[in-house]
Amino acid sequence: MMRQREGGGRTRSLAWLSIASLVALTIASVVVGFGWLPSAQADFSAVSLWDSICRAAGVPSAWVRQGSRQDTPAVASNVILLPEMARTAAPAAVGRGATLALNCTMCHGALGMSRSDAPNLAGQYPEVIIKQMEDYKSGKRGSPIMAALSKNLSADDIKDLAAYYASLPKARTAPTTYDETLPALVRVGDPMRNIAPCISCHGGVDQKLGAPWLEGMPKNYLVQQMQLFKTGERRNDAQLQMRNVVRAMTADEIDAVATFYARKGEPAGE
């Protein structure tokens, strides 16, 4: 009996010793992996835990900076998207918005359909217009013209403008639906390059709150905006969603996607 107790005690001691050794090894691995190894690289600077993880894994510093520091503003947008922003507004708000929109007709057209390369606003989702106007006003999205026009608009003014444009007749085709004939990037994206399908956010499979309607937009406008996202000059996309997608796209792919959405707004037969 005494020998059995002694044997059981030794077993428990060995078990606790194994656990203590494992804990010590784990702590040492974390210190070496996320502390000593990254800091041993001459160009390392501890900006975030993600930086440390990437550098411990041997990721080049240029890759880390591209995705987490140089390319990312502290706050992409001050706007918090809420479901109520997408609700249909009262007629009075639409009327007030129509008056305010008189300052917008030069670029966006008398009824929200542009004859230039400015975006069409007729029937656009209200939360999209609210977000973009607020981003212009705060400087999160750059445009000298839009910054000047939005500067003196109140939050209620912006909501009224959004209500007006959302109420206009939709001079555009029905939303893009899933179809085998759609361009590959629009339909399924490219998972190997981390490119999500366009229809997963912009309608077709799902319309993500704050993602704009693209059908019928001027092609040059779509190309320009994707290029700005690609270079990081436009940064008001939350969580780098558009930047991460477009960064991997080639110029031909950007042109093809823009051509597809622009043609979706053309009358049948053209």
Automatic annotation (TrEMBL):
Keywords: Electron transport, Heme, Iron, Metal-binding, Transport
Keyword Transport: yes
GO molecular function: electron transfer activity; heme binding; metal ion binding
Chain ranges of the Cytochrome c domain: 92-169, 184-265
Recorded superkingdom: Bacteria
Name of the featured protein: Cytochrome c4
